[in-house]
Amino acid sequence: MNLQSYNDQDLVKVYIAGNENGLQELLRRHKSKIYTSIYLLVKDQYLAEDIFQDAFIKVINTLRSGRYNEEGKFLPWVMRIAHNLVIDYFRREKRTPIITSADGMDVFNMLHFYDESAEDKMLRDQTHKDLKAMIHLLPDEQKEVLLMRHYADLSFKEIADLTDVSINTALGRMRYALSNLRKMLKTKEMTYKG
Amino acid sequence: MTKTSTSQNNVNLPIPNMFQPRTDIESDAEIDLFYDQIKGKLDRLAKDPQDETINKILAYSRSL
């Protein structure tokens, strides 16, 4: 049975009917979207792995118990579960995500001491790090929308539902996220030139 | 007379006013163009969970 041509809802049905390959295909299809969204929020690989795993344990339990609402889309539903787990984690830790980079370096030092004469690969790696650091600098609500839109591929309606805001607010947050990233990149470019 | 004020918590903001509503003219077209320009870079930040994590999830499912 070639499950790659099945849509998510059909894969859910296949899985509920007892075929483990349904879950395997859903994981293959969506693991990157879900994991990246979690990882860029919590900034810790091991924690992201745990939250990803916990989210899918909840998914499995819900599907197996017959409590899954077939009217909803699979990915936004899993994203909601993952999002709630991330919020639970930060509530437990009583801290908010943001500011330092994953390796604990001061983000602005990292941006300012850029080595212009480095090899192409180093430049690419640095741009990669810079962009990740800039995403971490965004306010949580803007970062969430950017991650859900870009990585999880959710619609603004789905993001609005998931974060309990209006579609216009979700759209506005995406705009501000992009605007702020643009400003930060401009600032970085000016630093290089200066 | 009672004075009222709204406190501002900017402790976590790296640059003052950076995230305040924009006052400069920045068109939607500019933002869209910028997004198109960084999409590829954003895509390169995508990561997969470890195979071990996927295997644990599948093993949990099979154990039920």
UniProtKB/TrEMBL annotation, chain A:
It comes from the Bacteria. Residues 26-96 form the RNA polymerase sigma-70 region domain. CDD domains: Sigma70_r4. One of its GO terms (biological process) is DNA-templated transcription initiation. One of its GO terms (molecular function) is sigma factor activity. The keyword Transcription applies. Keywords: DNA-binding, Sigma factor, Transcription, Transcription regulation. Residues 130-170 form the RNA polymerase sigma factor 70 region 4 type domain. SUPFAM superfamilies: Sigma2 domain of RNA polymerase sigma factors, Sigma3 and sigma4 domains of RNA polymerase sigma factors. Transmembrane segments: none annotated. InterPro entries: RNA_pol_sigma-70-like, RNA_pol_sigma-70_dom, RNA_pol_sigma70_r2, RNA_pol_sigma70_r4_t2, RNA_pol_sigma_r2, RNA_pol_sigma_r3/r4-like, WH-like_DNA-bd_sf. Belongs to the sigma-70 factor family. ECF subfamily. This is RNA polymerase sigma-70 factor, ECF subfamily. It comes from Pedobacter suwonensis. The lineage of its organism: Bacteria, Pseudomonadati, Bacteroidota, Sphingobacteriia, Sphingobacteriales.
